[in-house]
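Many introductory courses stop at the sequence. We go one step further.
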Amino acid sequence: MASKGKILSIDIGGSKVKATVLDSEGKLLEEYKKLITPQPSTPANVLKTIGQLAANFKSYQKVSVGFPGYVKRGIVYTAPNLGTEAWKNTHLEERIGKLLGKPCKVVNDADFQGVGIASGKGLELVVTLGTGFGTALLNDGVLLPHLELSQHPLNISTGENYDKYIGEKTLNRIGVAKWNKRLEKVLFILKTVFNYDRLYISGGNAKKIKFKLDKNITIANNQDGIKGGARLWK
């Protein structure tokens, strides 16, 4: 069933928590409001920040949330960039629903983006380049079970994963040129493993890509990713 009414869309990130209001088709109805992600980023502190952001929006009927970690049925199991131990087994969907008094859906942040960005045709992979490295996989528009690909070891002996290999901390440490070379290697791996029909790249660091992309790779428009907040309710 299509969603009705207005939807408060919240993006929890490693550096900022953002919120806006969408209509049922994903159209932006209000300007984004942003607050710095609190430190330490415990559930209690993040929920307080969400409450402060939500106070800026007076009219909405549902809440959609993108969270940077592994989420299953609204329960957080990992939060690599916020502190997994503090978040493990947190029923975030239930807690936000009680906090705001509205029906709520919580999914991985890359899944959130993926639902909004994907065309719905064929096997589509969406990756996000932000604080960490997120992925979402969809087949003919249907979101497949979330895999924490960002935590998959690239080097078993050292435990280095995608998050550490091309995450924002590494980008700042090694510089844009070396980071681009690493990203090229990662995209080659994804192409070989998934044999996707189309790959979308989103996130704040996507604009730093300097090499030529394959014809079936698209730099996603952030406005499209926002639509995920509405499409979660369809």
